[in-house]
Structure of Beta-lactamase-related domain-containing protein:
Amino acid sequence: MSQYLPQIKDARVTLRHLLTHTSGATAWIDQRDELNASELREAIYNNLTFGADFNQKVVYNDYNFLLLGFIIERVLHMPVQVAIQKYVLQPWGLEASSFTPDPHQAIPTQVRNGILTKGQVHDPKAASLGLHAGSAGLFSTKHDVVKFTLKMLANENELLDETTMRQFEDNQTTNSKLLRSWGWAFVTRKPHQVLLRHSGFTGTFILLDRLTQNGLVFLSNRVHPQPNLEFLEYQQKIYQTFAKEDF
């Protein structure tokens, strides 16, 4: 990773560690939410460490995908959200998906400072980074999310060939005791068979069973209007219920 981001001095960390959330990345940034995009990026470079969990645990952390976004910007010379729009959303025909939605077309997110927010990313770091956030902030519709799911269930698509698609089904960590794919988590279905899972902080998730060509899209808003932490227990039950289905 350091060859793309020389500000990161730890030469152990690779793109694989970022994609599988095995980097152990952590940082404490004082008054983080008060910083603008350039200040926050610099603070991440200066305060980020890769601790004891490096290559020992799978721990989701948005710093991994923020760094991936910074790398994309370095390679393509454009904001990461512009790159996603150009190289992913447009080729896949996800026309209703956007990082800058019309607030009148967006459902309310949460009550923040006494105001019900609409069309604003929930994550504070992504909100500060704006176009430079590779971790969160994409708004979409049921139709587009289903279209995305079908693309990921297919053997190949406009962006990814069959060899690459099959790699999503394999453990991509460098530690054989861990289990994680490229950007996706696993849910065990049967021996030697797993589902791909990706979830969002607000309760949304996608489950993919590439073997049987079935998927589950779950759209929710756990933080409306308040955290609703009890939902997380039910989320796990939904995962397991889908995994037990005999398609």
